């Protein structure tokens, strides 16, 4: 089938024409015949291994009696036990058992989710079979792939549009037919389109059958994806655009191609709306950045095969630069928003494509962290990856586009990196945690953010989406509303680095400032709240370590609350704020983290300790809440990362009313005293990506 090329009637710079239009006969969608021949004959070990894996998997699929459900599927997360987040085991139709409960229950939602997994097997099986045919010419692979595509052509229009909330028809605007989400509909349309492209030369589809697949499956599916989902500014739309493009390019439909790129919510829209100046996806988690980058890469690859150059968009490339500046030094990422634990190496296949396109050695260094066995790495066709060190930026930096500050150093015996979040909310995947901090030390997150745990458990909403679950301020025991703060200043001087940020719209009538600083001995953390009205302020901290000594604390039988996340705080104990000045959390096999605050100055009315929830339901992490009732208040703390025993800081003192324009803090040790004067003001041109000299911050005085 001949393909049509999109007429280049677009705005200057929107889409660049590549050299040559590529092949005009199937296959061409993601790779052409010449490319398949070159890779199938390659002697490179990673290419040979990938080809072998594809054909082995295809051989299994030939023998497998694939069951394509005659109903649409449900939401994947309904396959997880709501009590503990474990994956449910299907023992019979609609009968599932939670592994740790050993009790079988009827579960229709889980059955619908299970059907989605069967649709996945079929869609990706079609891709595997199509690629196996492309690599070997073995017709049996094409015949089995064709069977899957024809089965969907027979079934698709009979599926009912539905969503994961039980709505159907036009009310299911976020739903689909094969799946309960338009997102999943899109994700699993792309491999089917590619399979069709790969098997076309085999002749296993008659013209009538090919038309059946095109009209009753592909075009019908695209029509479902064109229903507005009201989810345009997130990762869902990137997949929808790529899926529409896959059908458009495959069938030579110029209108679909143009819609996917230049349409109201097409590729260009996504680049303009969802990529920050730092090269970070606006939803604020690296797991979702990777999830958005994959369809963007697929889209760009398809366009390149058609003679178009989406890779000429600098914002697309910036998405590969952003992860290099947003990581902790070890290549892991701070957990925040709807995030799971994630590492840079998880994007190795995407970076191999990026290295093939742009030749940046930093991208090769990331690609080398993977196993080179993904199909995107295969398509990149890079012979060898040059040796290189870690491309992760390790110095202190401010990312004003996304609104994250990183301080990096060795404040004590352990290398550490602290991230403070002050910027954009992150859409539906954002959390109410402005001015929250995450600290990595001794190879783990020590000041812990729970991320999302998993969407299927009630604690996702009742804990993860509540401010008290994060290392930030809670006002009147109510979670923050979506807000966006700003960096006031970012500076460095002899022996220290410091930054200050402000948020004034997380709570009505309350301004919040936070200053964090690294020295060679400790981390200084000062938080200020100012309001015209009295409030109950809770500054929460979740520390991965052992429970601190509790000899000054007494049980708080009534707990701290019944909602807004407070209901999940267990084993709560209380101490009057004037009776405690420090706590130490032992870190097994490493040392300890000690917090020291001003003593006897009513820095807080009360301290509460106990257990909260970490990154999964069984992860009990000690918490500390320092509470004060006032119109305005200041909290100071010094954190030491030290060897087992007693830290070097003996006491901390502070002076200055919260309403004042500055705060004075003194940190005292054996034979030494550090003095800090901290201004609560915005400084023009002092909140960029890199710290400025401390001399340029009016009122900032540090004597170490």
How would you characterize this protein structure?
By secondary structure, the protein is of the alpha+beta class. It has a domain at 397-703: Beta-galactosidase, Chain A, domain 5. It is built from 16 helices and 26 strands. The strands form five sheets. Strands 11, 12, 13, 14, 15, 16, 17, 18, 19, 20, 21 and 25 form a twelve-stranded mixed beta sheet that branches. Strands 6-7-8-9-10 form a five-stranded antiparallel beta sheet, with no helix packed on it. The protein has a four-stranded antiparallel beta sheet with strand order 22-23-24-26, with no helix packed on it. Strand 2 (89-92) and strand 3 form a beta hairpin. The protein is elongated.
Find the CATH topology of the domain at 397-703.
Beta-galactosidase, Chain A, domain 5
For the record, the CATH class of the domain at 397-703 is: Mainly Beta
Integer-rounded radius of gyration: 28 Å
Q: Specify the oligomeric state.
A: single chain
Tally the beta strands: 26
The CATH architecture of the domain at 397-703: Distorted Sandwich
Largest sheet: 12 strands, mixed
| Ends apart, CA distance between termini | 74 Å
Per DSSP, the total helix count is: 16
Helix content: 25-40%
């Amino acid at each position: 089938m001949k393909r049509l090329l999109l007429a280049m009637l677009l705005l200057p710079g929107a889409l660049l024409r590549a050299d040559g239009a590529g092949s005009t006969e199937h296959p061409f969608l993601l790779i052409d015949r010449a490319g398949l021949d070159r890779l199938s004959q390659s002697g490179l070990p990673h290419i040979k291994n990938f080809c072998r894996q594809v054909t082995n998997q295809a051989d299994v699929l030939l023998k497998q009696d694939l069951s394509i459900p005659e109903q649409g599927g449900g939401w994947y997360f309904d396959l997880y036990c709501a009590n503990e987040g474990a994956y449910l085991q299907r023992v019979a139709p609609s009968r599932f058992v939670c592994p740790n409960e050993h009790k079988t229950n009827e579960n229709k939602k889980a059955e619908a989710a299970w059907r989605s997994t069967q649709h996945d097997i079929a869609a990706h099986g079609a891709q595997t079979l199509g690629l196996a045919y492309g690599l070997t010419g073995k017709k049996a692979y094409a015949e089995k792939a064709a069977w899957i595509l024809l089965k969907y052509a027979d079934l698709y229009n009979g599926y009912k549009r539905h969503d994961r909330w039980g709505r159907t028809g036009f009310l299911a605007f976020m739903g689909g037919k094969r799946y309960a989400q338009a997102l999943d509909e899109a994700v699993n349309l792309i491999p089917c389109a590619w399979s069709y492209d790969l098997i076309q030369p085999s002749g296993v589809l008659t013209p009538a059958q090919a038309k059946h697949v095109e009209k009753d499956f592909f075009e019908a599916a695209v029509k479902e994806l064109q229903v507005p989902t009201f989810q345009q500014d997130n990762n869902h739309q990137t997949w929808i655009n790529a899926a529409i493009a896959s059908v458009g390019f495959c069938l030579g439909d110029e209108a679909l191609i143009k819609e996917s790129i230049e349409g109201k919510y097409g590729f260009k829209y996504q680049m303009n709306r969802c990529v920050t100046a730092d090269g970070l996806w606006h939803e604020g988690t690296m797991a979702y950045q990777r999830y958005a980058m994959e369809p963007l890469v697929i889209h760009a690859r398809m366009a390149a095969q058609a003679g178009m150059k989406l890779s000429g968009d600098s914002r697309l490339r910036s998405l590969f630069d952003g992860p290099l500046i947003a990581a902790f030094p070890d290549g892991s990422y701070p957990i925040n928003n709807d995030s799971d634990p994630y590492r840079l190496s998880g994007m190795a296949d995407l970076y191999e494509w990026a290295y093939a396109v742009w030749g940046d050695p930093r991208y090769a260094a990331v690609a080398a962290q993977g196993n080179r066995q993904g199909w995107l790495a295969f398509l990149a066709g890079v012979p060898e990856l040059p040796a290189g060190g870690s491309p992760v930026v390790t110095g202190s930096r401010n990312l004003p586009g996304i609104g994250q500050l990183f301080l990096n150093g060795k404040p004590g015996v352990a290398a550490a990196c602290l991230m403070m979040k002050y910027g954009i909310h992150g859409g539906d995947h954002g959390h109410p945690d402005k001015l929250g901090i995450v600290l990595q030390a001794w190879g783990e997150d020590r000041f812990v953010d729970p991320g999302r745990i998993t969407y299927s458990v009630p604690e996702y909403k009742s804990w993860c989406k509540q401010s008290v679950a994060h290392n930030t301020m809670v006002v009147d025991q109510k979670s923050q509303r979506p807000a966006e703060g700003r960096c006031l200043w970012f500076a460095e001087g002899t022996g220290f680095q410091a930054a200050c940020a402000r948020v004034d719209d997380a709570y009505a009538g309350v301004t919040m400032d936070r200053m964090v600083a690294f020295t060679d001995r400790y981390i200084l953390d000062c938080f200020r709240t100012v309001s015209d009205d009295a409030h109950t302020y809770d500054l929460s901290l979740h520390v991965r370590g052992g429970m601190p000594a509790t000899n000054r604390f007494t049980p708080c039988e009534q707990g701290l609350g019944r909602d807004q996340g407070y209901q999940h705080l267990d084993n709560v104990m209380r101490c009057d704020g004037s009776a405690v000045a420090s706590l130490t959390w032992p870190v097994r096999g490493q040392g300890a983290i000690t917090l020291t605050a001003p003593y006897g100055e009513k820095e807080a009315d009360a301290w509460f300790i106990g257990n909260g929830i970490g990154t999964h339901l069984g992860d009990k992490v000690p918490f500390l809440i320092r509470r004060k009732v006032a119109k305005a208040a200041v909290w100071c703390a010094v954190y030491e990362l030290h060897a087992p025993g007693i830290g070097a800081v003996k006491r901390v003192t502070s002076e200055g009313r919260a309403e004042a324009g500055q705060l004075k803090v003194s940190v005292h040790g054996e034979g030494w005293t550090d003095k800090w004067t901290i201004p609560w003001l915005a400084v023009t041109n002092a909140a960029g990506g890199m710290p400025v000299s401390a001399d340029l911050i009016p009122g900032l005085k540090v004597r170490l």
